Amino acid sequence: MEDDDLEQALVEFNKVLFYDKSIPEVYVEKAEIYIKLCDFSSAISCFKKALNLRSPVTNQSSQEWTERMNSLFFMKGLTMIEEGYCNDALNLVSQITSADIRFLYLRALAYIRASNKDLAFEELDICLETDPFNIECLILKGKLLWSIDKIEEGNACFWRAHEVNPNHHEVIEFLSIQKPRAEEYFKKASKAIFEGKRAAAFDFINKGLELFHDMTKLLLLSASLHRENADFDQALTDLERASKFMYSEGLENDVTV
Q1: For residue 87, what are the contacts with CB-CB under 8 A and spacing of at least 6?
Q2: Are 200 and 192 in contact (CB under 8 A)?
Q3: Nearest Cα to Cα of residue 198 among 221, 219, 232, 231
């Protein structure tokens, strides 16, 4: 193992098992070698043997091995789905009794790839009931909603994902799509204000904010209009919302002043 000679290490560990098949740590060592060799099925088999030998199940090492094995099940299932073997992935996941939310996500993904969107929604709803802040489930549900033309509901899932982690790469991609569209409404709202069409300006602002929540430019316009109407509480609310993105848009001075 120290020389990174994995094949020879397997030979030596098998020699140990020839004399004594009751040492769980040997199976775990073999599992780690199989992981390095990308043989997930063999690694899972070794972890199963180790867990059958180790008692009680509450033992800390047993819990660690179980978690390791479940991670391998997830990786193997994900690989199957990516290769188009959705039914095989579903059969694999059905063998697992763990309540780990990753396997609910995996089932949902397999159902999507198998074009069974109704069952995918069911799995994702269970996921989000268990963990409302699971960003991968939120993103997957958002995409699934888009695929059935429920654009606003899909966007809402992405905005919830944004609240969880604004730096997630798919959230950043979502913002890069939404921002230019919201910018168009900013231009229309600005033009409407210049022409004295306050109602139309509010309408454009609201449409822009539906696309890009808390967009600083749009909220500054909204605050300005509310000040004109002496609605100072709403103007202050707009400015507080505007502060969320003011640094990224370089408008912190405008909001603060």
Answers
A1: 110, 114
A2: yes
A3: 221
CATH architecture of 175-257: Alpha Horseshoe (1.25)
CA–CA distance, 201 with 204 (Å, rounded to integer): 5
Compute CA distances 36 → 24, 75, 89, whole Å. 19, 13, 22
Torsion sign (Cα): 122, 127, 132, 138: negative
Q: Which fold has domain 1-93?
A: 1.25.40
Q: Rounded distance, CA 114 to CA 137, Å?
A: 18
pLDDT at position 98: 64
- Distances from the Cα of 9 to the Cαs of 6, 33, 38, 104, in angstroms? 5, 8, 16, 36
pTM reported for the whole predicted model: 0.66
Domain regions of the chain by residue span = 1-93, 99-165, 175-257
| Interval 170-229: pLDDT, tens | 999 998 888 898 899 989 998 988 888 888 988 998 888 888 888 888 888 888 888 888
Task: Say whether the peptide bond before residue 180 is cis (omega within 30 degrees of 0).
Answer: no
Distance (Å, whole) CA 203 – CA 219: 13
pLDDT attached to residue 121: 92
Within 10 angstroms of residue 14's Cβ, the number of other Cβ atoms is: 11
- Asked if 72 and 40 touch (Cβ cutoff 8 Å), the reply is yes
Instruction: Tell me the HSE value of 110 on the side-chain side, using a 13 A CA sphere.
Output: 24
Give the contacts of 117 (CB within 8 A, at least 6 positions apart): 111, 144, 147, 148
Q: Which two tokens stand for residue 3?
A: 């020389």
The two domains 1-93 and 175-257 share their CATH topology (first three levels equal): yes
Domain 99-165 class, CATH top level? mainly alpha
